[in-house]
Specification:
Layout (H helix, E strand, L loop, with lengths): L2 H23 L10 E11 L1 E2 L2 E2 L3 E6 L5 E5 L4 E5 L5 E6 L11 E7 L3 E6 L4 E5 L5 E6 L12 E6 L5 E5 L4 E5 L5 E5 L12 E6 L5 E5 L4 E5 L5 E6 L6 E7 L2 E6 L4 E5 L5 E5 L15 E4 L4 E6 L4 E10 L1
Antiparallel strand pairs: 1-26, 2-3, 4-5, 5-6, 6-7, 8-9, 9-10, 10-11, 12-13, 13-14, 14-15, 16-17, 17-18, 18-19, 20-21, 21-22, 22-23, 24-25, 25-26
């Protein structure tokens, strides 16, 4: 081999070795340290409330006082419980008039002040004050452009009162300004980047970014407050992630198809999984829809297919 060829080969070897060293510093998600997690069954809400059996509970939200609000979709109502899960009040009933619903789904508080209810089949977002008195609504339809919106799903808000509404049918997020007027949309049908497929619940994380459960694409998508795509959380285990909540910079993602909960660290690495059957429970969760922490270690889950709400104590072996 001629001398200059030896030099070239040596340089290629050094570059290759350097690249291998860099790759070794990147920890694949499959080899990230797994935490031992268990969710121990503590309580279930099932049966009659205010004389009517719970039927397909879906969305759940928590106010600043620790009161818990649960959408009883099959009965077209919202139930209010105190922090000890004692029933306090109900609103709703089937219909299209003010204060009534036609298959409500997700709910959220706009900066802790008003409860917003995704009234799916009425194609609107209904707003109630903290006393559950009707305030107003955002219409999720346009007579001039009938195909502009589908049916509303998850709801979230910016610090300035803009409303982000997931449009499951049109694979987009519709953004309304702080007086309820349509502004613009983000996303379109697709499989990557900021594209979406059947988006469900939306929340904001500890950085103020928006996390959208892009259920049809088996992932969670992160956008910044300016609606720019940032990153995705996607794993082979996901089937249909419908809801997400956050605790101690950990993401807890509920997969409706599997009935399981996946835990990711703040960088999106999968670090734990909770099975569809809570320890001590008598049944597997079936098509659960939403979840939220109601205390430091208590996780509440709407077990939609079993017409109940379950509460479990989270135990993590660090």
């Amino acid at each position: 081999m001629v001398p200059h060829m030896r030099i070239v080969c040596l340089m290629i070897f050094i570059v290759t070795l350097g690249c291998s060293s860099v790759d070794e510093k990147v920890i694949p998600q499959e080899t990230t340290r797994q935490l031992q997690m268990n969710l121990v069954f503590e309580k279930e809400l099932k049966g009659e409330f205010f004389g009517v059996p719970l039927n397909k509970p879906i969305g759940v939200a928590l106010d600043y006082s620790g009161n818990i609000f649960i959408v009883d979709a099959g009965n077209n109502r919202v139930l209010k419980f105190d922090s000890k899960l004692n029933p306090l009040k109900q609103i709703g009933g089937f219909g299209a008039s003010e204060g009534n619903f036609n298959f409500p789904t997700y709910i959220s508080f706009d900066n802790g002040l008003n409860l917003m209810v995704s009234d799916e089949k009425n194609r609107r977002i209904a707003r109630f004050n903290s006393q559950l008195q009707y305030v107003d609504e955002i219409l999720f339809s346009d007579e001039e452009e009938p195909l502009k919106f589908g049916f509303p799903s998850g709801i979230s808000f910016t610090n300035f009162g803009e409303v982000w509404i997931a449009d499951r049918d049109n694979n987009q997020i519709a953004i309304f300004n702080n007086i309820g007027k349509y502004s613009h949309s983000l996303g379109e049908f697709g499989y990557s980047g900021g594209q979406l497929s059947s988006p469900e619940k939306i929340i904001r994380d500890f950085n103020g970014d928006f996390l959208v459960c892009d259920a049809g694409n088996k992932r969670v998508v992160r956008y910044d407050e300016y609606a720019s795509f940032q990153t995705e959380f996607k794993h082979d285990y996901f089937e249909y992630p419908t809801a997400i909540t956050i605790k101690d910079e950990k993401y807890f993602i509920l997969d409706s198809y599997l009935g399981s909960i996946f835990c990711l660290d703040k960088n999106g690495y999968l670090i734990g999984e909770i099975d569809s059957k809570l320890l001590g429970d008598k049944a597997n969760m079936f098509n659960p829809s939403d979840l939220i922490f109601i205390s430091e270690d208590q996780l509440l889950i709407t077990d939609t297919g079993n017409d109940r709400v379950v509460v479990g104590k989270l135990i993590i072996d660090e």
